[in-house]
Write a structure and sequence with these properties.
The chain is about 0% helix and about 45% strand. It is mainly β. The protein has one domain (about 1-90). The protein is globular, with a radius of gyration of 13 Å. Bound molecules: calcium ion (CA). Calcium ion binds near residues 16, 38, 39 and 40.
Length: about 100
């Protein structure tokens, strides 16, 4: 298993053969990024607020789980999934359980 921080801008990120944790902010999921989790059950954790648009990536494969976070409206996570890509979206709770705010399209 590896913990991988996605760099900003176009890049090719490849996971290991095992289960990986991939960390990315909205700006790091940039156009031109190729993200391949490799083998195992890989988890993409979305950091902070913003618009996470997976449609603009050059490639998005072998990532089994996307973990979003409940946040306040000012830091809402808006997530655009890719057509034809099967992925499980999990939402991690916060201490502010009465103010969940996220959107998945
Ligand atoms: Ca992997």
């Amino acid at each position: 298993m590896a913990v991988i921080l996605v760099p900003g801008g176009p890049a090719m990120v490849t996971g290991t053969a095992g289960d990986d944790i991939i960390l990315a902010s909205a700006s790091q999921l940039a156009a031109g990024l190729s993200l391949d989790g490799g083998g195992g059950r890989d988890r993409l954790i979305l950091l902070d607020g913003g618009t996470f648009d997976l449609r603009q990536l050059a490639a998005f494969t072998n990532v089994e789980v996307i973990e979003a976070q409940e946040r306040t409206a000012a830091n809402r996570q808006t997530i655009y999934l890719r057509d034809g890509t099967a992925v499980t979206v999990e939402v991690a709770g916060t201490s502010d359980a009465y103010n969940p705010d996220y959107r998945v399209w």
